[in-house]
Amino acid sequence: MSGPQENSHDHDHDHAGHASERRVAVAAGLTGLFMLAEIAGGLVSGSLALLADAGHMFVDFAGLALAFLAFRIAHRPANARNTYGYDRLQILVAYSNGLVLFGITAVIGFEAWARLRNPAPVLGGTMLAVAVGGLLVNVAAFFVLHGGDREDLNLRGALLHVMGDLLGSVAAIAAALVILWTGWTPIDPILSVLVCLLILANAWRLVRDAGHILLEGAPAGVETAEIAPTLRREVPAVADIHHVHVWAITPKRKAATLHAVIAEGQDGMAVIRALKAVLETRFGISHATVEIEHGRCADRVPDDHDHDHAEAHPHRAHDHTGHRRDPHHHHGHVHRMIGSPA
Fold this sequence. Notes:
CATH class of the largest domain: Mainly Alpha
CATH superfamily of the largest domain: Cation efflux protein transmembrane domain
GO molecular function: zinc ion transmembrane transporter activity
GO cellular component, one term: plasma membrane
Family: Belongs to the cation diffusion facilitator (CDF) transporter (TC 2.A.4) family. SLC30A subfamily.
Subcellular location: Membrane
Membrane topology: Multi-pass membrane protein
């Protein structure tokens, strides 16, 4: 059952999602229009450099369009096949965009190496005009995206595409000026490699963060080892907490499941409410499933010796992670998230 706080959280999440979606749409539109202008200019002038840069812009436009599509699909309601909804698609797209950025930098690096080995003449004036136009477009797109939600990995992926173009435009302007003043063409591939290194560092962070969520890793900022001790300390009716699992559906949607042992006669529903309140306020976990147990864990295979030992030493049958040490234990049961989409 959802409370007012959770409804407010979902409303804020939806509002932030719509704002990010609009920002990505504007950035995609700007990038797409400049790409078309470059194609037209390249065909009219016969400039291979313009057509090549248009190809690079097309890759970034495709990445932005994919990010926008992910935002649109994420608004679809949950169903029996996708019980958490489609929010995770944004994480998958962010991960994919990070991999695409690796590919782009690899191509640019290869071309830079080829140009360093076999320098080719460069039209500095044409290069400068195209770079200035690209810089203006990319600065506009960058500021549109930069004001968005920093925790949104999908938006971060889109921002990295635009940032790569922006840095590329700055490097191209600098290279064009050096070529016009000195005629030294190797400056173009050298600056391209420096831009690639900056893009790679950010792309790696994006892939790492998105991959961590896709692997059901613990959310950033949540100390999982502190959850069980904190719940035992702040909810006196709880005798033990174990089988604690915490993950992020998205950076803003944190979820958890756990087992709580309470004494006979305790109000189970009141304990669940208290545990969920602590998870929300102390750890920012808004979706939690709590399984109430009396005396022993329901997942353990009956064993008289283990049962007697657990009754005599209720806190010794757990390892350092809060899990009961049980070779027969498995996680084949299915949890339904209380308060999450049906």
